[in-house]
Specification:
The structure is a homodimer. Helices cover 64% and strands 10% of the residues of chain A. A three-stranded antiparallel β-sheet of chain A has the order 1-3-2. In chain A, a hairpin with a 3-residue loop joins β2 and β3. The radius of gyration of chain A is 18 Å and the shape is elongated. The structure holds a DNA duplex.
Chain lengths: 125, 125
DNA sequence: AAGTGCAGTTTACATTTGTAGCTTAAGCAA
DNA sequence: TTGCTTAAGCTACAAATGTAAACTGCACTT
């Protein structure tokens, strides 16, 4: 995923993306609204603006049916790993190991995390 | 470090912070400028603005001598781990292990990183 | 003592982001 | 058919951000 796509997803827009990622299929504004109005307390107009911006940024696709249906163009995984690499570039001198060391040293890992990681690195090759 | 400090450091401001973190002692504007003008191509006025904003945000301390000397109030480590936790909260459901899993799956780790991690989580208790 | 230069402060201005209203047109209810 | 509802598009507007100029006063030079 290129920088000019993901880097432009703002916090508010990300909430919309998360919703679209969770959905199996494309969603009409109605449903997007239903789910965000409660959780975020946004006005319908706000949600429309966010969707429009995501579409114009090319990260959400709109498909005309009776009404427009929206779906993500980029996957959540792609976005996540892009954001992670971006963090590593910006503040860990580009070294993933520094990020992890920081996590370990700042007690950023729960016991559960550690157990999980121990599993992960036991079998991984 | 509380959210209201670190969350307000913007990208441009971060460049100034990085410089201050690298410095052993407090620096006068002159030196900050010298180092940033080349690397970032910023006008002196821009650099002054960034410093002023950092001071007003409380993340940089200014000490009056002949002229003001500036030094970071928060450490780079604190900032890094705050930023990392923020990322985990925002896009990894609060689970550090998901971040690491993402790194592993997206080839974000070098062989050396992986070896290091295997060591790290082999002995940890 | 007067002039210059630059630190420090104030102001500026375009773009992005967060948040939302207004307008237009089309579908559905009456 | 007439109007109500609402999707879609356009406009709005304050705060934050990136970038920088203008102003002010002090220190150092001549």
């Amino acid at each position: 995923m290129s920088d000019n796509l993901a880097s432009k997803i703002t916090d508010s827009e990300l909430e919309v993306m998360k919703l679209l990622w969770r959905a199996k299929d494309a969603l009409p504004v109605t449903e997007i609204r239903e789910q965000l109005q409660g959780s975020k307390g946004w006005e319908p107009a706000t949600i429309k603006t966010l969707i429009a911006r995501l579409v114009s940024k090319g990260v959400v696709h709109q498909e005309k049916r009776n009404v427009y249906y929206y779906s993500p163009v980029i996957t959540e995984k792609d976005y996540s790993s892009w954001a992670t690499k971006d963090l590593i570039t910006r503040i860990y001198n580009g070294k993933a190991s520094e990020l992890i060391a920081s996590l370990v040293n700042s007690n950023g890992l729960s016991q559960a995390d550690i157990a999980e990681l121990r599993e992960m690195f036991k079998v991984e090759e």
